[in-house]
Amino acid sequence: MRPAKTAAVIGHFGGDKEFFDGQTVKTKYVFDELVRLYGANEIVAIDTYRIKRNPLKALMACSRAVRGCRNIIMLPAQNGVKVFLPLFRLLNIFKKRRLHYCVIGGWLRNVLEGRPFLTSCARKLHMIYVETPQMKGALQELGIRNTTVMKNFKKLTPVDADKLDSSPDKPLRVCTFSRVIYEKGIEDAINAVESINNEFGRTVYSLAIYGPVGDEYKERFMSLERDFPPYIRYMGTVEPSMSVETLKDCFALLFPTRFYSEGIPGTVIDALFAGVPIISARWESYGSVLNEGMTSLGYDMFDVKAFEKLLRDAALNPERLIAMRKNCLEAAKEYIPETAMRVLTHELC
What we know:
Blueprint: E1 5-11, H1 22-38, E2 43-47, H2 55-68, E3 69-75, H3 78-91, E4 98-102, H4 108-112, H5 116-123, E5 127-130, H6 133-140, E6 147-149, E7 172-177, H7 186-200, E8 205-210, H8 218-226, E9 232-236, H9 243-247, E10 252-255, H10 266-273, E11 278-282, H11 286-289, E12 296-300, H12 304-316, H13 318-322, H14 325-332, H15 337-340, H16 342-345
Parallel strand pairs: 1-2, 1-3, 3-4, 4-5, 5-6, 7-8, 7-10, 8-9, 10-11, 11-12
């Protein structure tokens, strides 16, 4: 009998299309790092892209994975959790493989709460890997003890510390680098930059907006874009491998998220590798990811006036943010694959 392979990775790989969302990026990074460690012949990929078009094919692929792999590593999105946790619990009745769930974002408790069967499925997994201690605590409150913290990570080359820009151009270049949707605070960033520039009576900040526009937000965003002043521009999407090169000359990354349950946002990791400080809303795990005054400046979520004040103060004292750039590079070391993935590989049989 052929020996079982090391692992199958089930997640959104995106088929032959390019996707830049956090789920796809993390799925690919986990797969690539496992291939690097164990070899391509030992790791199986199961792509959940367009799974609804051929659910029988997906079911057969998952069944083969349980029969042929010692470990099953799932990275489903919110809807996928409701399918894959019960599915693999059923498929695993006889083989008793190790089932691993790498959580993307901080929403899992909200999905499990009030769903006792799904919660029971989560408890039966070998391990659940969450991104922050806050997320681990939230699951433990539901009686889910099989949890550990595995930080989000990216395979990026940091900026050379000796080449950090210590005298940024005027106007100061700020950017957003995430999905372009209302919940990521895109309009808060637009309004804050406009407000500061109007207050100063000149272009203090220019704002570049990077990222894919959400389908449900396209019409709204196109309407906003038509009225953008010259100092605000939508720059389209950027390949993940080009994030550091794109961000490195920015004065600051703006992250005015309205998602309280963010885990470790990929855009924050990008900025750290680029040596770019973050001006951010304080989401639930903010303090576990960013160091106030060292790598970031934070404000209470939804407090747009406080957000504007941080931008105003930074314009009057840019040296404060410039001094944070080396701190960002130091913090980035926590988010390299070799460091983060040890938590997972330690649990593989």
